Amino acid sequence: MTTDVTIIGAGLGGLTLARVLHVHGIPATVYEAETSPAARSQGGMLDIHDYNGQPALETADLMDQFRGLILEGRQAMRILDPDGTVLFDKADDGTGGRPEVQRGELRQILLDSLPAGTVRWGRKAGSARALGGGRHEVTFADGTTLATSLLVGADGAWSRIRPLLSTATPEYIGKSVVETYLFDADTRHPAAAKAVGGGSLIAPAPGREIFAHRERGDTLHAYVGLSEPQDWFAAIDFTDAAAATARIAAEFDGWAAELTALITDSDTTPVLRPLYALPTEHRWDRVPGVTLLGDAAHLAAPNGEGANLAMLDGAELGKALAAHPDDIEAALTDYEQAMFPRSTEATAFEGAEAHGTDSDNNTAHGLVAAFTRYEQAR
């Protein structure tokens, strides 16, 4: 394959694509806005599924490295009522198909698997335009440009490559999460640590939710969900940690102390993360020389599938290009025809059945029933 492959975005999906292409002897260059791999926190835990994320890593020939990252016991799950009653307590017996790893560590094994210089750091894409004949030009924030015969947008929710293919933009889903961390939890925050247990915790109620999981190093990482318009959050000064924490905690008045401690006892300033999504069946007509993967293609409300789908997209696109080295359009057509229904099915099923996005799952009892249905369906 003589075509130059340009990937915008060094997240898990873009790096998986670059790695699979490298396995097949196809060079690629990845352009990333961040200035280095350590420029920012890479998020928390990821459960890597045996039906999409793990097959992607197998295609990338990285399963041995992946197994070395798995945090044992983290597939345990607890569902609590807001009053602290434990309604569901599933132990990790080692047979589950969703082992947990730290996102940053997973990204690092992908980076380490690529030839030096594959990722160009500090190159933020500003815009892209068609040049004709399937070629495109990317303009970076520093004013420099590049032209390429194959452009892949792996640049997330606010992709600068997506407008070449689609007019769709992410829309606020009516919910945001506030992110907190509790460090040295077993000794400094024992009640919260006991509530979370060895893996993850979900405590849902209509319009409110606390989700937390146990990371490496005795750290609890919590996502406090609130279904409110963006104006509601805009009225909170998140630069004032104490005031913001108190305001969010007030929305959970009456909840068990071991649950609200995940808000009030945060060892970090609470971080607001509004949630956005693209239309569920987002797709586009084939445009020569360009495609999308991951959140750039099918951003959805958090449902446990996003990172897994991004990696599978990258792996499948890499395989398609390797299978059609002299026909890029055939490769992109094969990839997109499989990716569109795959992403639609994953976001619709996982969201409704396992993560409380429908009206029946807005209580702890409803979520227990949903998980029971989900396990039976699997």
- Helix content estimate: 25-40%
Q: How are the strands ordered across the major sheet?
A: 5-4-13-14-15-12-16
- What's the alpha carbon Rg, rounded to whole Å? 21 Å
CATH superfamily of the largest domain: FAD/NAD(P)-binding domain
How many strands appear in the DSSP assignment?
Answer: 17
Largest sheet: 7 strands, mixed
- Tell me the overall shape: globular
Please identify the structural class as seen in this structure: alpha/beta
SS element count, helices: 13
Using the coordinates shown, work out and report the CATH topology of the largest domain.
Answer: FAD/NAD(P)-binding domain
Domain FAD-binding: 3-46, 144-344
GO molecular function: FAD binding; monooxygenase activity
Binding site for NADPH: 40
GO biological process, one term: response to antibiotic
Helix-strand blueprint:
Layout: E1 5-8, H1 12-23, E2 29-31, E3 45-47, H2 53-59, H3 63-67, E4 77-80, E5 86-90, E6 100-102, H4 103-112, E7 119-120, E8 125-132, E9 135-140, E10 145-148, E11 150-153, E12 171-182, H5 185-188, H6 190-196, E13 200-205, E14 208-215, E15 219-226, H7 230-234, H8 241-250, H9 257-264, E16 271-277, E17 290-292, H10 295-298, H11 306-323, H12 328-354, H13 364-377
Parallel strand pairs: 1-2, 1-11, 2-7, 4-13, 11-17
Antiparallel strand pairs: 3-6, 4-5, 8-9, 9-10, 12-15, 12-16, 13-14, 14-15
Helix pairs in contact: 1-4, 1-11, 2-11, 6-9, 11-12
